[in-house]
Each structure stands twice: as structure tokens, then as C-alpha cells.
Amino acid sequence: MDANGIIHRADADDRPRPRSMTTDDTVPDPLEEQLPAVRTALAEASRLLACLDFDGTLAPIVDEPDAAAPTPANEAAVETLADEPAVTTAVISGRALADVRERVDGPSIYAGNHGLELERRGSVAVHPVARKRATRIERACEALETVLEPIPNARIEDKRLTATVHVRSVPPAAEPVVERRTREIVDRFGGDELEISGGKQILEIEPSIPWGKGNALELIDAELPDDTVALYIGDDTTDESAFRAVEPDGFGVLVGDDEPSAASARVASPAEVASFLEWLGETGVELLAE
Ligand SMILES: [Mg+2]
Q1: 246-280, pLDDT tens digit by residue?
Q2: Ligand 1 centroid – CA 233 distance (Å)
Q3: Cα 290 to averaged position of ligand 1 atoms, centre (Å)
Q4: Ligand 1 mean position to 95 CA, how many Å?
Q5: 34-63, pLDDT tens digit by residue?
Q6: Burial (0-12, 13-18, 19+ Cβ within 10 Å), 146
Q7: CATH, domain range 130-207
């Protein structure tokens, strides 16, 4: 874990994986420098696919994950975009599907558990391997409740297909203990079938399958016209696969500071996300080719 409290993947599962698992990532440009390219891409497309992460993107990160809510500006901007006939709007979150869809209105598509569950046209598709491993997740969560019980403010969230151990409010001295005990439990109940990845002050327990937000985004995009321009905005390691899914023809927008990423543009905060979404809803949609 670094000075900002971010548990990096390399720390989380002792394999030396950098933030985005590729070495050619560069620091994204500030969004305003990429806006001319965004305008050109919109002018050449007939449709916009706008995919949005939730925590840290639409909603500021808060100490109590259950209290997270989109900023009012993001809430309004998402509804406006979702109402645009030429825009398909999706929220792709690490939260459970049922959780995230309660927190933001408007989109026609929601993906939960980092893309392992996808709701479109009123029906939910679940990754079949993840579904099979849900029992292991449940057992690991039960065991974690016991072994992490003595740790102040350690919180386990069972999201059925994945689980999150929240360490944001854990005393810093106890964080290595949380990580060690979590790893032991996941090894015991998961074997080769579960793995741990890191996020912002979380340990994410998930099935060890090569499926992420980028795969869900590709499923959504595959149903849209070929001349759709895709956009993804997100703030964390799990968003990198989605950035790679939209780049280089579309745009990945990292919410954060100047760290290397597969995204080509960056904004600083959920407030700047709202400004961009408002611009897309007012000006961006007008640029789309007829
Ligand atoms: Mg996020």
C-alpha cells in the first residue's frame, strides 16, 4: 500500500503487475487538450456510447461506501445524456448490479461486479463461471467475518459474484493484518478459483477468470452501429480494461492525477466529470453525424 492508501495489484497478490498490466501506458493529457480529437470523433460517428464508472467518477469517494451518491450535477447530466436518442448510456461498476442501479437513474444498461453481471433490455446476464464460484465467495466472506472481527472498522461486503474488503477506515497499523488474513482465507476457500486484486483502499476478491469491465463494454458496443464512438470514464485499476476497450478509436478518460494509464485523457474529479458530461449533452450530441 502506498502513501495515498492505494493498495496496488502488485502488493495485493504478490505478482508484479503494474497498474494497467501494460508497459506502454503514458500519462493521459488533460481533457481540454484532447477535446479537438473528441469533437472530430463525434463528428465522424452517428452514435455515442457513454460508459461510466460509479465510485470516484460519478460519486465522490466517501468513508462509508453505503453513503456514496452521485453529485447532483452528475445525476442531472447522466439523465440528460440518457434521454438523448443518439446516445447509449451505461454504468459499469465494481458494485453489485442491484446496488449500483439503485444509486443512479437514467441509463438503459448497467453492469455490476466489474462486468460479471450485465443488465440490458430488462434481463440480466451473469458470467457462468462466476455464478459457479459464488458459493466460494460466500464461504470466504463468512470466514472473513470471523478473522477480521477484531480489526476496527474492517468491513466485508459480499457482492455475491465478488466481495470487497474495505480498509479505508482501518487503522494504518492494522492494514497489513487485514491483507494477510484476507489472503489466507482466499487461499483456503478459493484455491485457484478465486484471486485478490487491489483498488483504492479495498481488497477485491473475485473469480480468477479473464473477464473485466472492458469485456462488458465490448458486449454492449457489439450491438451498436459500427460508426458508434465509445467513451469510458473511470478512476481505478479495474477501469483500465475498459479504457483499452475504447481506445484508440474512442476515448478513455481517467479521473485522477498524472499516473500512467491506457486512457488518453484525464480530469481531476467527479465535478470535472459532470462538466464533461454536460458538454457532451449540450454540444457533443450536436456534433454527431446525421
Ligand atoms: Mg471507481
Answers
A1: 999 999 999 999 899 999 999 999 999 999 999 99
A2: 9
A3: 33
A4: 9
A5: 999 999 999 999 999 999 999 999 999 998
A6: exposed
A7: 3.30.70.1020
